[in-house]
Amino acid sequence: MVNKTANPPRREDSLTRDRIIEAAIALLDDSGEAGLTFRALSVRLATGPGAIYWHIADKSDLLTAACDAVVARTLAPAAAGATPEAAIRAIALGLFDAIDAHPWVGSALMRAPEQLPLVRIVERIGQQLQALEVPDDDQWTAGSALSSYILGVSGQNAANAHMARQQGLDRTVFLHEVAMTWSQLDPGEYPYTRRIAARLPHHDDRVDFLAGIDLILGGLDAKRRRAR
Amino acid sequence: MVNKTANPPRREDSLTRDRIIEAAIALLDDSGEAGLTFRALSVRLATGPGAIYWHIADKSDLLTAACDAVVARTLAPAAAGATPEAAIRAIALGLFDAIDAHPWVGSALMRAPEQLPLVRIVERIGQQLQALEVPDDDQWTAGSALSSYILGVSGQNAANAHMARQQGLDRTVFLHEVAMTWSQLDPGEYPYTRRIAARLPHHDDRVDFLAGIDLILGGLDAKRRRAR
DNA sequence: ACCTGAACACCGTTCAAGT
DNA sequence: ACCTGAACACCGTTCAAGT
Description:
2 copies of one chain form a homodimer. Chain A has helices at residues 17-35, 38-44, 49-52, 59-75, 84-101, 104-111, 116-131, 136-166, 171-183, 191-197, 205-227. Chain A is an all-alpha fold. Chain A starts with 16 loop residues before the first helix and ends with a helix. The model of chain A is unreliable at 1-12 (pLDDT under 50). Chains A and B meet through α6, α7, α8, α9 and α10 of A and α6, α7, α8, α9 and α10 of B. The structure holds a DNA duplex.
């Protein structure tokens, strides 16, 4: 074991991994994944691009770390006392709102399933499935279904918001334009899409999102009843 | 209306949008999203980078078009005669395999929910929900749940495969390494993840994937029974 | 109408040199 | 131990000039 000296006292504003990650989050929130640049980051931190590499391995490391910071914060408040179902709904809604606020988190989570940020999510959901007394064999399936659903719907909601903002449009106006495009698709090939297009701008995302969670939980419950 | 002349006869090897898209797919399959470069593409097509811009708006247009070509091919065989549930399973499994073969499709689909490739998927699933006589109000929820689940699980499966290949490892060896890392997480904080780590390398992805589809379909069925 | 390829304004990353 | 900033090997995209 290397005899490492204890951390020396730091200047208040010295460069640290945490300060870099916070600056990265701010940059990502401001201008999306394209806005995260080692040059922009070094300007914001009043340093050179090379300095960042002393604390961060590379860009992918930085993005994962930023993602993990957001996820960890979101999952921090433990849902105490509530039923497992309510806890799952709370976890899901917390992530939905976090991804809505930080759209880049959605796509970042999707890329490296074995990394810590997603493991945190799977763990939290898994604990609740355990509390629900879901049989061991079904926990993996139910956990995958729930986490994929959460990431998928939240990510798509955030992508819509991001797209709207990028075009300088209000979210509702943007959805109206999408609905317009969809309603002009070929009637023979796209009957379903044309029909739901009208609903698109009016639906309440969070309500519909929770309805999907309940659908999966309902499937789990039905399966358990059948097994009895 | 502009009086446009009919398409003139083409040289066999002239540059067309379709030829560019096929070359892009080959490049993406070979070396992932990072491998798709206008320079590499122009070398493959024996032309200059500028020529591509005559047929393609920009890189995002190219990626969406490549994605759409793969999705359209995958959804092409219409599941005739089968029950709606079986049709949904067939659609899901087809996409799972397509995303496994073309890992970049997963992340590409996630980014622009309003674009044609995802609309194709939603339409196909929606038609089967209609055939299942799912009430109008539930079709959106069920469609979102199914499509998010399909894209999420397929995308994560493909990301694992991609990660393994990148590290020059066999898929199973890679999953064993992930399982090892997970089983060394803090026991107080990650009890669930530690427990399922052991199952990770042995599970059959396609079987587990279909089990999740059935879970969602089961939830839909349970909800219908309750409404009666 | 379609293609060429140099040029522009960027990237991530490295590394000798400093403190 | 940590930081600087020039340099390298790339990008996507544009555009005058060609056919």
